[in-house]
Amino acid sequence: xxxxxxxxxxxxxxxxxxxxxxxxxxxxxxxxxxxxxxxxxxxxxxxxxxxxxxxxxxxxxxxxxxxxxxxxxxxxxxxxxxxxxxxxxxxxxxxxxxxxxxxxxxxxxxxxxxxxxxxxxxxxxxxxxxxxxxxxxxxxxxxxxxxxxxxxxxxxxxxxxxxxxxxxxxxxxxxxxxxxxxxxxxxxxxxxxxxxxxxxxxxxxxxxxxxxxxxxxxxxxxxxxxxxxxxxxxxxxxxxxxxxxxxxxxxxxxxxxxxxxxxxxxxxxxxxxxxxxxxxxxxxxxxxxxxx
Length: 292
Fold this sequence. Notes:
Elements: E1 3-6, H1 14-25, E2 30-37, H2 54-64, E3 69-76, H3 82-95, E4 102-105, H4 110-116, H5 123-142, E5 146-149, E6 154-158, E7 172-175, H6 182-189, E8 192-195, H7 200-208, E9 227-231, H8 241-246, H9 258-266
Parallel strand pairs: 1-2, 2-3, 3-4, 4-7, 7-8, 8-9
Antiparallel strand pairs: 5-6
């Protein structure tokens, strides 16, 4: 089991996020840190709430840390052409010294998509487009050149250079809980899967859905199987995000205050607070994955 934290870059300040990440970088319990990738506030927050852009924020955090792995949990694939996203990912992996986790999903936010004139599509269209995008991204990151022709994307002798530090490409984390398509795409392309929302029963059923998380044979890197369990543990959504943000919590989901991170490092947290063992105050989202 491995632990991570997530700071949604909304309802907070850059300085507050930076403080949390720098503190977490010194806490070995945390393997990775994550942001989210939206343009409008999420989790029923005030639509006028300020929100920092996820990838720019993540790049800055890469320079402010030295150990933590990092990613967006997750990037809606329809926001950027997958060839553009592949180049962004390769560059950030270089800049971070090979610490990127590439979190991607089909996309779901109709409000911001409609506001910006970005085509979201039906569930089937999203799944079809996402599968093509995964082929484009993995091809560009791992091959010298990529030629691809699909219903949504077409590439001809396309290159992505420099290549990422991690070979053949940074680990893909596919987010979503769709048993018919999303999990099959994760089994085909991903190194781990993020279960973002739903009940414990739905999570257990999804993991057991054959052949949802059966993986292709080991590749050149010898990676034998997709890791079938990354779970986010959110704190309350009671509408008091701005009050809590002013007290130091980061993001609309009231992530862990930087002060609590320092208390954890010093071994002075009080009572246990769930799987992350962090208290007082709400625990951050915890990415829980099987050991290798």
